[in-house]
Amino acid sequence: MPHKAFPGRYPDTRLRRPRQAAWSRRLVAEHVLSVDDLIWPVFVIDGNGRKEPVKSMPGVMRLSCDRLIEAVGDAAALGIPAIAIFPFVDPALKTPDCREALNRDNLVCRAVRAVKAAHPDMGVLADVALDPFNSAGHDGIVRDGRVVNDETVAVLCRQAVVQAEAGCDIVAPSDMMDGRVGAIRRALDRAGSVDVQILSYAAKYASAFYGPFRDAVGSAAALKGDKKTYQMDPANADEALREVAMDIAEGADMVMVKPGLPYLDVLRRVKDTFAMPTFAYHTSGEYAMLKAAAGQGWLDGEQALLEVLTGFKRAGADGILTYAAPEAARLILDKCPGTGAG
Ligand code: PBG
């Protein structure tokens, strides 16, 4: 017996019929990946005219602010709505109290100001977390070998305010401390940044897929141990819903599930349960895997990229952070010219 919601029966119903022609496949497509869905994470470094390849992320560069402005111009021309700025901080500036995170003139703030001055219509996001500034490599302050929660949250609040003052449109707490979203919201409001949005890395797992990112920002060398006391256990999904629920209650405007591909089930449940603007992070390790295989000629990199990003959409993502955003945008525009901003 056919299922009552799906009454079709062969040979009257042939599901291959609508798949016969490209026009027909386009007509019945349930999800469409668009340039509007992309957030491009970028790595910024001190200096001028610098463009350093990140070894474990083929095609990804650390850029000095002047070069970043050019790159963001290209992204804007492709119609990419937003970027996420990550700093490679001079190791000499990393301390146990992470004070450089609060410097109004730190690399992140300078990059945000430079990008917003050159491209005011580009959405700019910055991570709220201490790892790039921490000599211990952790996202929070370490005392007696423990990452301490409430003291870290107090520093994160100040970091978020400094980033908002530099012109950040979205602050994105990626640290997984308890209670930080509400505290950051109150701190932003007190500082007059009521319109700055919070994208919470709400369900962020302790993952091996962040390896290349830690190379790119230079935090791998500093980090001893792992992040399992604050990032989530990959075995858990119900707990992700509790994390997301609490962040929404605390004032998150948008929520994220991270990493992407191994957590599509979590993404779908979060979207279905909360109907919030929901983002997926196609992490550095996922990017590296794809590029490595494509580089060997073991799969078609372009096709695989679009398939992965479409998979995020199908699983419920409203938007995707991906290092391949410019490449994906070009592929989308090639396929369907006229949909970009350029
Ligand atoms: C830092 C941060 C990480 C990522 C985004 N923000 C790494 C981590 O938590 O160790 C990962 C990004 C990626 O792998 O692409 N809090």
CA-CA gap between termini? 52 Å
What is the residue-mean pLDDT, rounded to a whole number?
96
Approximately what portion of the residues adopt beta-strand conformation? 15-25%
Give the number of domains: 1
The CATH architecture classification is Alpha-Beta Barrel
Query: How many H/I helical runs?
Result: 11
The global form is globular
Structural class: alpha/beta
Which percent range fits the helix content? 25-40%
CATH class: Alpha Beta
Largest sheet: 8 strands, parallel, barrel
Number of strands: 12
Q: Report Rg.
A: 21 Å
What small molecules does this complex bind?
Answer: ligand PBG
SSE succession: HEEEHEHEEEHEHEHHEHEHHEH
Spatial strand order of the main sheet:
1-4-5-8-9-10-11-12
The CATH topology turns out to be TIM Barrel
Low-confidence stretches: none
CATH superfamily: Aldolase class I
